[in-house]
Amino acid sequence: MRKWYGVSLFIATLSIFIAIALVGSTQAADRPVLRVGTDATFPPFEFVNEKGQYVGFDMDLIRLIGAELGMDVRIVNTSFDGLIPGLMANQFDCIIAGMTVTDERAKSVAFSTPYFNAGQVIVVRTNDQSIHGVGDLKGKVVTTQIGTTGQLVVDKMTGLKEHRVFNTVPEAVQEVLQGRADAAVIDLPVAADFLRSQPGKFKIVGKPFTNEVYAIAVRKDNPALLAKINQALKQIEASGKFDALYKEWIMQ
Ligand code: ARG
User: Fold this and answer.
1) Pocket of ligand 1, candidates 123, 145, 186, 213: which has the most ligand atoms within 8 Å of its Cβ, to mutate?
2) What is the pLDDT of residues 167-214, one digit of tens each?
3) pTM for the model
4) What is the DSSP letter of 160?
5) Which atom of ligand 1 is nearest to the CA of 214?
6) 190, 92, 84: which is closest to 147 by C-alpha?
7) Quick one: which of 18, 81, 106, 197 has the most CB atoms within 10 Å?
8) Which atom belonging to ligand 1 lies closest to the Cα atom of 105?
9) Which of 61, 123, 148, 155 to mutate to test the pocket of ligand 1 (most atoms within 8 A of CB)?
10) Which CATH number is 120-205 given?
């Protein structure tokens, strides 16, 4: 009798634990997920660290936004030129990728309030003496990342020897460092970050020659999400958390 009492008590306790575990797990699964497209080859905004984690300014910012919205953030890593098509095909809910607001892109996607100012700069090897600005790119081999505003602006330049387009910014820069190209055209904050991580290898010449702002992109048929993201951005700026991110990733 006693023994059976013990066994049923044990079973009852076990069932309670299982029930709690089940409720817990369904609750976790019920938390809405924000699927975020990015191209994590763009430090200090988005890159993969030694531990294989998605880190950087944009990654922290979107996680803060997720927290404001009560959503779990799931990063979907895609090539930069696949981001807008992926968003349109509903592979993710938004894009954060140091993405510049352009009229062309705004035809297909809706942009949040801008959160960052940037511009294109020219990057050359440290010992280069021939390139001081855009005018000096004539007769040179210039590299950019596919689908970027850098590619767009270099596409319009005349008199270049060649324009070589790469899948990622690090590849475009590598081509210059290894002497196969003369200059890369990339976003200033990314050039500045490479300069910090690989000092002495190359230099930035001249000033940024475009004016750009970064924003988060969502599908036009999802104005509710856009409004929530803008509200969250406001909150994050007002709380000082945005400045903290800026200090951590941009001003080191
Ligand atoms: N700001 C540029 C653009 O929008 C470059 C962005 C590249 N971003 C990236 N994650 N690779 O075209």
Assistant:
1) 145
2) 999 999 999 999 999 999 999 999 999 999 999 999 999 999 999 999
3) 0.89
4) -
5) 1
6) 84
7) 81
8) 4
9) 148
10) 3.40.190.10
